[in-house]
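quick q for whoever's on today - can somebody do inverse folding on this one?? i tried earlier but teh output was garbage lol. tokens:
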């Protein structure tokens, strides 16, 4: 089943490869232009159907998942390539490509989130990408496979390979199809910043293999690693994940990447890419290096509080509408980190639920401000917008709802996630929890300010009157709205499924 999840996007990409695509500007005859447009429509339909099929497979996997066991499920293993080594005149076969995959309660919902967000990404730029469309769609399908692989592999070295491989399609998506000249700088910042951070993870994995002879996550988690060794390994892994979260001061690349990326790129960055680090904290730091995690928890909480307050204040000062959503993501992910390092079930469950909620709400806000508004007016400067409620009432209603969700109001999954995360931190350190709760106040400040500035007042003289959101844009937002409300009203859908896996994680500590 997991292999199918990984292969379906690749198969869809192979169907796209033979289709010939030409730049419409190079075609003179109307008949050739029409054929070219039909080929482009076919490519988009193939990519969308492929991603929807993968979502259906992920839902089937979710239905078949048994939350009453702590064991990995749907386990598959491939050790086809081996290295032969002589030990006391005996030839031993050592597999050096150990492709070992499985799913537990922790990884299940991240896989579902990836499969859910990918069709949204493809639909979001349905009419905007006109050049090299085939390669754009292939990049997203390959990116889906790489992201799912990060969440299902059970080997540290393979985890590192896929963790870094997602940078390649992201680099292409931002660098080729991004907005304006800064897209080149943004793509290189994303690639080089996160690659630099991940080199420390590679060194840590090499040390683990050298000392313990394996990179199997389950096997390493059973090893007794001395505290001094754990500390150095923990720091190496933490730096890598801090770049991807991102936490202060490793967040510099995020704003550039979001503001320069096409809409689909911003959605996948906020929806899934930032969750790779969340999963890494759970799967590696808390599971394999528990003593060092406990030792460094005050440091992590301090960094998270600094990130939360700094990002919130920076958000208030943004003049770019995509920049507001980008910096608010840093603040929300800081609350996630607080919950992860609370060392109790309540906090970790809240952090996972808040990660999922952020994966729904933040893409929706990008669709509204970076899609609906930008596609009509081709500017992201907040000062040019005013009085949108007069001409775009449906847009204003959707913007209002997702603004409330972003603030963490009741009946949203964000509220449940933030409440559980902060309640978990409170049990460990009430002062940190009180400081973390200021994020709710700051979130209300910049969210209400942005909504009020864009929606109300007299209509801006700088922008013409235009049409409200289209059917495609509405259907993009509706699943995100429903998912956020359902998880806000019935959070036990997720909490009960992950309870045993989280309990086992802390029991191992």
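ok took a stab at it. sequence:
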């Amino acid at each position: 089943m997991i292999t199918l999840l990984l292969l379906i996007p690749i198969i869809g990409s192979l169907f796209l490869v033979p289709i010939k695509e030409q730049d419409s500007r190079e075609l003179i005859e109307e008949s050739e232009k029409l054929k070219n447009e039909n080929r482009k429509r076919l490519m988009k339909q193939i990519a969308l159907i492929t991603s929807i099929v993968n979502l259906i497979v992920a839902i089937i996997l979710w239905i078949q998942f048994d939350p009453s066991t702590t064991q990995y499920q749907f386990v598959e293993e491939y050790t086809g390539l081996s290295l032969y080594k002589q030990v006391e005149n005996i030839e031993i076969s050592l597999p050096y490509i150990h492709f070992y995959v499985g799913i537990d309660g922790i990884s299940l919902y991240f896989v579902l989130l990836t499969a859910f967000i990918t069709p949204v990404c493809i639909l979001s730029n349905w009419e905007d990408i006109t050049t090299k469309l085939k390669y754009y769609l292939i990049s997203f399908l390959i990116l889906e496979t790489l992201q799912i692989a990060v969440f299902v592999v059970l080997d540290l070295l393979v985890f590192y390979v896929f963790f870094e491989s997602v940078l390649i399609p992201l680099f292409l998506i931002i660098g080729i199809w991004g907005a304006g000249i800064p897209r080149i700088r943004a793509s290189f910042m994303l690639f080089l910043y996160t690659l630099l951070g991940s080199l420390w993870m590679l060194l840590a994995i090499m040390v683990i293999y050298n000392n313990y002879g394996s990179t199997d996550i389950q096997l390493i988690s059973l090893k007794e690693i001395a505290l001094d060794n754990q500390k150095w390994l923990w720091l190496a892994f933490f730096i890598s994940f801090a770049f991807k979260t991102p936490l202060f001061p490793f967040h510099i690349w995020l704003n550039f990447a979001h503001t320069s990326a096409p809409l689909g790129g911003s959605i996948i960055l906020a929806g899934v890419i930032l969750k790779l680090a969340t999963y890494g904290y759970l799967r590696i730091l808390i599971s394999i290096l528990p003593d060092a995690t406990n030792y460094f928890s005050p440091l992590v909480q301090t960094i998270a509080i600094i990130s939360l307050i700094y990002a919130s204040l920076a958000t208030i000062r943004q003049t770019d509408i995509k920049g507001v959503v980008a910096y608010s993501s840093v603040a929300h992910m800081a609350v996630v980190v607080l919950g992860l390092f609370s060392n109790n079930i309540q906090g970790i469950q809240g952090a996972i639920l808040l990660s999922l909620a952020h994966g729904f709400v933040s893409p929706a806000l990008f669709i509204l401000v970076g899609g609906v508004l930008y596609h009509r007016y081709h500017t992201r400067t907040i000062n040019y917008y005013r009085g949108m409620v007069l001409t775009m009432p449906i847009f204003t209603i959707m913007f209002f709802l997702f603004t409330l969700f972003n603030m963490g109001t009741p009946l949203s999954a964000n509220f449940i996630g933030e409440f559980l995360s902060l309640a978990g931190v409170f049990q460990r350190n009430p002062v940190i929890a009180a400081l973390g709760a200021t994020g709710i106040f700051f979130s209300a400040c910049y969210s209400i300010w942005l909504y009020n500035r864009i929606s109300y007042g007299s209509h801006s003289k700088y922008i013409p009157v235009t049409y409200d959101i289209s059917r495609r844009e509405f259907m993009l937002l509706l699943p995100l709205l429903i998912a956020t409300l359902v998880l806000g009203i019935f959070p036990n859908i997720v909490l009960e499924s992950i309870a045993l896996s989280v309990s086992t994680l802390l029991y191992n500590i």
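fwiw Residues 1-81+93-504 form one domain. also The radius of gyration is 23 Å. so keep that in mind when u check it
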